[in-house]
Amino acid sequence: MKNRLLVRVLRRRGWLVLAVSILLLVAGCAPVGYGLASNNEAWQMDGLYCDGTKNLILNAKGPAAWFDEENAASPPSKDPYGNQAGAIGFPMIGVENCTCNSWRMDFVSPDVSTASYWQDLKSVSASLLDTASMQSATPLNAQLMLLINKQTDTYLIQKDASGKAVFCPLGTGQWTNCNAAISSTGYTVLNIVVRIYGQCAPPGSGFYEGGIFLDSVIPWKQ
After folding, report:
1. Is residue 127 a contact partner of residue 171, using CB atoms and an 8 Å limit?
2. Whole-prediction pTM
């Protein structure tokens, strides 16, 4: 019925309506992802680990906490309460006593293996806020990853021309939009992982205390 009505209108009004219809169709193709506006949408946290190992520094494994006061569309800590526009986050409490050089923690999406909009990707983007390193001399870095094999812990990541992993430096006290050019053609994406890296601050050099927040994780097919 809708298609028939569209044809009739086009015949009556010509190219102007055709142009408007094309714009509406394009607008309807906006990417589907995780807005994380009103809840954690089943995202999990995992960590903190000494980087490169499974040695726990702090056991934060479990459902990601949702925060109403943070949202990528607003300045840090200025999003109005109760507006159904929040973000998930990991509150850090003075991570200065780890014995390794650096730590990592993960935000992990639910299983997306049957979600067509998370397959055959060209890139993935996410918004991140770092308020944890405001007392530290070592800002944080993020890495957007696509998990394709849980048994072997294998990920698709963005690499530069020399084959080295590409990271997204996070601005301290501000939202940073990270984008990773990752082609997943030929693979089944199981989970999206947003990995955060930080340095183990030695005594007297500052520490991490605040939060790391994640919002608007979007798949891109072009």
Report:
1. no
2. 0.81
